[in-house]
Amino acid sequence: EVQLVESGGGLVQPGRSLRLSCTASGFTFGDYAMSWVRQAPGKGLEWVGFIRSKAYGGTTEYAASVKGRFTISRDDSKSIAYLQMNSLKTEDTAVYYCTRDVEMATIGAYYFDYWGQGTLVTVSS
Amino acid sequence: SYVLTQPPSVSVAPGQTARITCGGNNIGSKSVHWYQQKPGQAPVLVVYDDSDRPSGIPERFSGSNSGNTATLTISRVEAGDEADYYCQVWDSSSDHFVVFGGGTKLTVL
Q1: What are B5-39's pLDDT values in tens digits?
Q2: B100 CA: distance to closest CA in chain A (Å)
Q3: Does the distance separating the beta carbons of A45 and B43 come in below 8 Å?
């Protein structure tokens, strides 16, 4: 059974940093790209960024709203994806979900077939 | 950047058919995916690549995509289908790569 478990959320002051973890099980983690998607309270879904599998270079892409502040990495030996969040702003307050990404190879697109339960990040003084 | 437009709400009586639209410029040329999110829960993939269903998703859920509109159709709606539904595309030409629609709240009357 595929499972994704996020951890590391909490209350943090503006300008500070926080690192989230996504621990995966039930599949060969290294074969998949992984994304982070967030949802502000009462709002819709917003993609944060993703990391490709090592087979595709392990490269990352980010939404414009977090580029330069957030960094996604992965440890395939531990089946964990990370989201390092620096220079946090109040508008980063959200539930953060990690997802397993399925690549549609013929068109280079991805969709999200499994989601974790999310971890809440609150940025407030 | 690419924009997906969904109606904020759709209401339907039990047993009827619900249609949730997702509008975007020439969206028919893209692959559209749909997610269901019930209150307090994580999203669940219900349709991928316009019209395919993941295992475990009832046949009542179907999708189509043409021109400037993609549609999620839920037949024989049940009370348990009440949720928010989001469409999603991948658009590497935009600064966001992944674009979600704003979401549609499906209310079962």
Answers
A1: 999 999 999 999 999 999 999 999 999 999 999 99
A2: 7
A3: yes
